[in-house]
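Form 7-S
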Amino acid sequence: MSLSPPASPSANAAIDAMDRVAQATLAYFAGPGRTTGARVDRWQARDILMHFIYFHDATAWGIESASQGGPPWPVPADSDTVNEVCRRLREHESVEDLLAQLRQAHARLMRAARRAPDLDRPCFRRATGELLTGRQRLELLAKHWTEHVDELKAATV
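Output:
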């Protein structure tokens, strides 16, 4: 097994920020987010959990592909469509099941990011064709998760 070169400071910062946000988010959903009736647009807390799993996994798959010299991971549709598909496929799953899956997805993403030789390499292709690097994906996910939790908390008040 070959060792990856040390990650850049900006890559390490993105990994650390994503991990901090994920831990806070998981704590929220294990606590007050588990039972909140708050809605953000049409999405309830459990709906938000459902799409977090997919996009965490897709990012990890992309980072792994890029790390092996493969292509960026393609997202097959726009975010609204993917989110709705995730909701329908997981609508029968309990919050406990969703949280367990999200914890696993986060662990996979952190492992992939920490061992990636270059998080500034394109790893993710949106349906529009836009390419994002691993670092950009981590930064976007951390921001997105924070926004969703903040919106849920504000809707609860």
